[in-house]
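Message: Study each token:
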Amino acid sequence: MYEIGIIGGMGPDSSRELLARIIRYTDAKSDQEHIPVCLLNLPNIPDRTDAILNGGESPVPMLNRAIRDLIKLGVKRYILCCNTAHYFLPELISDKSIELIDMVGETVARLKNKGIKAVVVLGTAGTSAGGVYTSALASAGIEAIEIKKAWQDEVSRIIYGIKSGGEPAEHAYRLISVLGALATDHPGVPFLLACTELSLLKELVFKGFKLIDPLDVAAIRAIQYSGYRVKPEWLKHVG
């Protein structure tokens, strides 16, 4: 029996990172005190941004197949380890035997609880065009500041560079340049890392920038909803 299922491969490294954070943040003193987690690493899921922007192959059939596989394995709740994939939630299987930990919804709830009034959204062009965060943030009374096309194009290059196995330090340097420019335009406004590839760079770029990382929120909520304890030093990530 698995407490948590991760539908991953979107991309593979960020899926590994989510599993690693669940392990790292769990207050466990032995193997047996950790959470049983099943990771489905499915990099052959069609590109979500291509489906949204260009009418490319839909990821929905493979996502639904993955949900069915998790149900067969007895998984109690699951995470879609891809922000852009949340655009397709209305088309995904809803089954009372398995619960979705909504990374987008949980992140927006965290922002609202923190009293944050605006965020700069950094993610794929598909997340931006599909309004993955925009509508949820608006419903919570939070302004979603969309970035200009030139910056969006650079963020997209960083994201797909990471997916292709690029050197993290190089991409972190490029992301720091983007953050620095945007911080000048939007002083004091936190940045929402609305792509799990950007989450991989967080520890390399966080100094000097206020970053909100949905991957942290998902990891900690997974621990809490499964009835396990979070290490106190990590609770600051969700408040």
Summary: The chain has a mean pLDDT of 95. The chain is about 45% helix and 15% strand.
